[in-house]
């Protein structure tokens, strides 16, 4: 799952049909206390540093913005733009697959949904490793070159965009698929039937019924993909050979490499420039969000269509989406020397040698424990802050209805922005405690809280009115009813911390005990470490994937409705 | 379920507290990963007190410069000499007070200009002016100008910036040792004005000419995706290329993947009547002021000379190759010569890219590495004239050497 998923439901103002509860609130003071932790954390870690970044970039006059005209900076911002354009491709693939699979029926649809969404739980670091293995130049090792009998430098100039485009699609198209699949199941079929009966042409029907109905979901899917593309960082660090990284690195990665040389003001100017670029690219989504997105039950359950085409489609998509996992697992099961020199289709010796080697020095095993503990602590912190905040926002009328739109926009902006956008002041303020475990947990938690509040808020407002017996235990009733959303928020927080590389590199480099940072070390000698790297990646991927598998039903319910049914 | 939620919640703080009870292990930061890290852990295990080793990788600079004193390691083993003299890092280093005496050349490298204190002790040395090939299958060239590898015969791991910078350093030191010496004169502060010397452009052009002749554009594209180890595979495992320029620590990789007894090497060719270049590297162990006083003892213990006949994890590492030290001669036939050359240190200079800090500091996609990657792409992939490409590269180097340049 991704943090993007959270916006799946509720992107338009919520129509509250309940009897207004006037005078039964918990009081403004207590309500503010409920909000305190969430507001403190997200303001302290995100909002205030963001404002400080803008101030810092202007502190020496607008001259700092000259940095945006430097050739290498322009190249990296151009690359960022390319990545954001790839987000459109991701959405298009998601829409195409959803359209083809619109009549797949509940079983096939469920299988597709599961397989397509699963890569979103994989860390981008692992994705980079998998695609680098598959597209290796040498046909003895690279699957694609072996299949086509060529020796194309896929990871070399120009071609590398194809590899990373495919990696982005593999990882995120499933989320877009999920959104569009749900939306297509809820097309206003009656309206379409009526239009057809009145002789409205096919094109006209498309423009006046289907497109407006899909605009909202499309905007959501685009936002998720945009957030993924704006945060592209570790996939490049792991997946691209060192010589090629400058060719495809976006502004975020460039910022990380050069912020020391740039100095604070110019590094801040670059952060602001990058944020503006992302914001501009997000504008079309805001137009789309004016349409309503509601997730009512589908009027007519889709008729499963039997036919060889749909089976063929499902088989092809399944093979394509499972293949990268397969490559990783098979590589990890080979002898380390064989894995370095040849591809897995070369056969054995099949051993657990790579796993032994991966666990040999103890650093990896230690990091597994530390990272797990850190993720659990962050989940607790996030729920502790987000549950009361979401509850108060959902059930106390602290804000007039029309004030909701800006709040929503701010939350969306916070979820989309890469941490580099506000890292300069954050690094400075954290410097006395940087590298300590509590500091890192707090930063992680603060980054997830806006998202968790959104997820929980959307579920809490859906808790049926009769449950709202206003007493002191009401919060617990609401939480119990909205359990799926609670699980969703917890899993999101866990997976984001478990897979994080950026925050670790920006704010926690000294401790070196975070799992992805240990994986990243293997990129120094990528191919000769292929076996142990694959083994470590399999272990690191198994945890979030298992979590998603175990909680899958809850997550789906949390995404589409958020309330126990 | 045997583990209740309550028990789990109670166990979390207990586990956190348990960590505080024991003696705090010495924090040692290194940059190795994989096999080298395992070897180092084996060495450290023989130290009597608890030691925690962690690999900071390419982030070692950020670790040592980090704003928070508490998280700076107690001991660091640094492969980048420039970091010792970084204005942020140098005051944090506790000068070395050991009883064993290092070789004059190597002492000079760790002594700041105008000072007599050595900042650290050498743990590992590297000889970076070697060219490896399969034994009996390659004739060493007479000198650098006559060395024109045919397309496909030379393997370069151009994906790793340090491989390209080692090439540049060897060519520069062979062609114009005075520039190399001018940039970092022994015992004096460095002088970046030398970057604009005409010899730099000439050396870059010579380098570009060799690279251009050694690759077709398609081969060069492939080379850009190959790392250091891949280039060794090409010569010794797949046998698709004939020769690779690589440091002494290529030997264990060759023997691991290509078999024992297959390799031979020669010195990086000299230019005309100049002395052959000797680019050296090495890892220096330093104790940090923030750490406990016994951190120096650890550095002493780590870098101490071994008596002849003494056997421990380090001598085992030396015997297996891939590790040269100032004191213990290697037993491997192929490494004895390079080890003697390191001790004699004739026309020797420390790896340039590892001495640079600031705008030209190395790293993927930045500094000298990036300039050389672009030079390689220009001459070998895009077939730009070497003189033109060298001029452009020189301009980037001059711009990068100016403080705060970007």
Please give the radius of gyration of chain A in angstroms: 24 Å
The total count of helices of chain B amounts to 15
Largest interface: A-B, 64 and 58 residues
Question: Can you give the mean pLDDT of chain B?
Answer: 87
Rg of chain B, alpha carbons? 23 Å
Mean pLDDT of chain A, to the nearest integer, reads 84
Category by helix and strand content of chain B: alpha/beta
Largest sheet of chain B: 7 strands, mixed
Total E-strand runs of chain A: 0
Overall morphology of chain A: globular
- Report the end-to-end length of chain A measured between terminal Cα atoms: 21 Å
Distance, first to last CA of chain B: 60 Å
- Please report which band the strand proportion of chain B falls in: under 5%, 5-15%, 15-25%, 25-35%, 35-45% or over 45%: 5-15%
- Quaternary structure type: heterodimer
Strand content of chain A: under 5%
Largest sheet of chain A: none
Element string of chain A (H = helix, E = strand) = HHHHHHHHHHHHHHHHHHHHHHH
The H/E string of chain B reads: HEHEHEEHEEEHHHHHEHEEHHHEHH
In short:
The complex is a heterodimer of chains A (565) and B (406). Chain A is mainly alpha-helical. Chain A contains 23 helices and no strands.
Description of the structure:
The complex is a heterodimer of chains A (565) and B (406). Chain A has 565 residues and is an all-alpha fold. Helix content of chain A is 70%, strand content 0%. Chain A has helices at 28-58, 71-100, 105-117, 124-134, 143-148, 159-185, 189-197, 202-230, 234-239, 242-248, 251-288, 308-332, 336-341, 353-360, 363-395, 404-416, 423-430, 437-460, 474-481, 483-499, 502-507, 515-521, 530-560. In chain A, helix 6 (159-185) packs across helix 8 (202-230). Chain A is globular. The model of chain A is unreliable at 1-14 and 19-23 (pLDDT under 50). Chain B has 406 residues and is of the alpha/beta class. Helices cover 41% and strands 13% of the residues of chain B. Chain B contains 15 helices and 11 strands. In chain B, helix 9 (228-236) packs across helix 10. Chain B is globular. At the A-B interface, helix 10, helix 11, helix 13, helix 15 and helix 22 of A face helix 2, helix 3, helix 8, helix 9 and helix 10 of B.
């Amino acid at each position: 799952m991704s943090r993007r998923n959270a916006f799946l439901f509720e992107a338009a103002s919520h129509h509250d049909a309940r009897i207004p509860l006037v005078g039964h609130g918990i009081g403004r003071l207590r309500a503010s206390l409920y909000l305190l932790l969430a507001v403190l954390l997200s303001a302290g870690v995100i909002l205030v540093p963001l404002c400080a970044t803008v101030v810092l970039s202007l502190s020496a006059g607008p001259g700092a913005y000259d940095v945006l005209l430097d050739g290498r900076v322009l190249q990296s911002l151009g690359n960022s733009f390319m990545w954001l354009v790839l987000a459109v491709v991701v959405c298009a693939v998601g829409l195409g697959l959803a359209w083809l699979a619109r009549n797949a029926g509940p079983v096939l649809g469920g299988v597709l949904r599961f397989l397509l969404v699963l890569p979103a739980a994989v860390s981008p670091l692992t994705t980079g490793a998998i695609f680098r293995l598959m597209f290796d130049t040498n046909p003895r090792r690279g699957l694609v070159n072996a299949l086509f009998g060529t020796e194309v430098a896929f990871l070399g100039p120009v071609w590398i965009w194809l590899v990373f485009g495919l990696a982005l699609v593999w990882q995120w198209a499933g989320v877009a698929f999920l959104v569009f699949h749900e939306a297509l199941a809820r097309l206003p079929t009656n309206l379409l039937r009526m239009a057809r009966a009145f002789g409205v042409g096919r094109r006209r029907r498309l423009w006046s019924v289907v497109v407006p109905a899909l605009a909202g979901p499309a905007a959501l899917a685009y936002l998720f993909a945009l957030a993924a593309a704006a945060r592209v960082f570790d996939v490049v660090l792991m997946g691209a050979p060192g010589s090629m990284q400058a060719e495809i690195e976006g502004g975020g990665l460039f910022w990380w490499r050069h912020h020391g040389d740039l100095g604070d003001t110019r590094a801040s100017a670059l952060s602001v420039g990058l944020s503006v670029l992302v914001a501009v690219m997000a504008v079309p989504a805001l137009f789309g969000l004016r349409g309503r997105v509601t997730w009512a039950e589908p009027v007519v359950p889709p008729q499963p269509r039997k036919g060889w085409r749909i089976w063929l489609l499902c088989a092809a998509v399944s093979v394509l989406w499972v293949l990268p996992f397969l490559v990783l697992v098979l590589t990890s099961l080979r002898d380390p020397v064989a894995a370095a020199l040849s591809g897995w289709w070369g056969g054995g010796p099949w051993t657990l040698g790579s796993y032994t080697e991966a666990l040999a020095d103890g650093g990896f095993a230690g990091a597994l424990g530390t990272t797990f503990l850190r993720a659990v602590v962050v989940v607790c912190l996030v729920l502790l802050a987000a549950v009361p905040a979401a509850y108060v926002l959902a059930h106390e009328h602290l804000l007039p209805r029309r004030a909701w739109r800006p709040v929503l926009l701010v939350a969306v902006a916070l979820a989309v922005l890469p941490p580099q956008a506000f890292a300069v002041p954050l690094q400075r303020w954290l410097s006395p405690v940087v590298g300590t475990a509590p500091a890192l947990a707090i930063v992680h938690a603060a980054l997830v809280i806006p998202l968790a509040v959104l997820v929980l808020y959307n579920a809490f407002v859906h808790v049926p009115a009769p449950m709202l017996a206003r007493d002191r235990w009401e919060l617990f009733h609401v939480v119990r009813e909205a359990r799926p959303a609670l699980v969703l928020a917890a899993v999101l927080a866990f997976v984001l911390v478990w897979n994080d590389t950026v925050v670790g590199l920006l704010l926690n480099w000294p401790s070196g005990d975070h799992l992805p940072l240990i994986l990243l070390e293997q990129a120094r000698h990528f191919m000769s470490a292929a076996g142990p790297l694959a083994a470590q990646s399999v272990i690191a991927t198994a945890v979030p994937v298992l979590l998603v598998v175990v909680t899958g039903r809850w997550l789906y319910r949390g995404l589409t409705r958020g309330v126990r049914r | 379920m045997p583990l209740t939620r309550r028990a789990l919640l109670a166990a979390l703080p207990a586990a956190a507290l348990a960590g505080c009870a024991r003696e705090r292990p010495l924090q040692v930061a290194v940059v190795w990963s994989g096999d080298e890290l395992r070897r180092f852990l084996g060495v450290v295990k023989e130290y009597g007190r608890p030691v925690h080793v962690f690999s900071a990788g390419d982030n070692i600079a950020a670790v040592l410069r980090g704003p928070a004193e508490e998280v700076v390691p107690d001991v660091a083993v640094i492969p980048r000499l420039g970091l010792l003299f970084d204005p942020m890092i140098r005051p944090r280093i506790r000068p070395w007070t050991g009883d064993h005496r290092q070789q004059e050349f190597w002492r000079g490298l760790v002594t700041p200009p105008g000072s007599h204190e050595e900042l650290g002790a050498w743990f590992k040395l590297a000889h970076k002016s070697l060219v490896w090939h399969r034994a009996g299958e390659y004739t060493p060239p007479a000198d650098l100008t006559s060395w024109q590898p045919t397309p496909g015969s030379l393997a370069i791991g151009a994906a790793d910036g340090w491989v390209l910078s080692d090439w540049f350093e060897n060519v520069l030191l062979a062609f114009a040792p005075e520039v190399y010496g001018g940039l970092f004169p022994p015992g004096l502060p460095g002088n970046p004005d030398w970057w604009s010397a005409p010899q730099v452009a000439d050396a870059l052009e010579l380098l570009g000419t060799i690279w251009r002749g050694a690759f077709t554009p398609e081969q060069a594209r492939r080379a850009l995706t190959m790392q250091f180890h891949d280039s060794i595979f090409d010569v010794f495992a797949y046998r698709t290329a004939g020769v690779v320029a690589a440091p002494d620590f290529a030997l264990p990789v060759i023997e691991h993947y290509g078999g024992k007894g297959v390799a031979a090497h020669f010195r990086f060719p000299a230019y005309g009547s100049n002395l052959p270049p000797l680019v050296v590297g090495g890892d220096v162990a330093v104790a940090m002021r923030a750490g406990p006083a016994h951190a120096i003892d650890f550095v002493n213990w780590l870098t101490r000379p071994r008596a002849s006949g003494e056997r421990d994890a380090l001598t085992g590492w030396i015997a297996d190759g891939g590790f040269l030290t100032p004191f213990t001669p290697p037993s491997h036939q192929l490494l004895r010569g390079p080890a003697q050359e390191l001790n004699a240190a004739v026309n020797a200079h420390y790896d340039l890219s590892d001495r640079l800090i600031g705008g030209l500091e190395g790293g993927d996609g930045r500094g000298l590495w990036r300039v050389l990657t672009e030079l390689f792409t220009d001459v070998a992939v895009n077939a730009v004239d070497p003189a033109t490409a060298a001029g452009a590269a020189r301009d980037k180097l001059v711009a990068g050497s100016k403080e705060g340049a970007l």
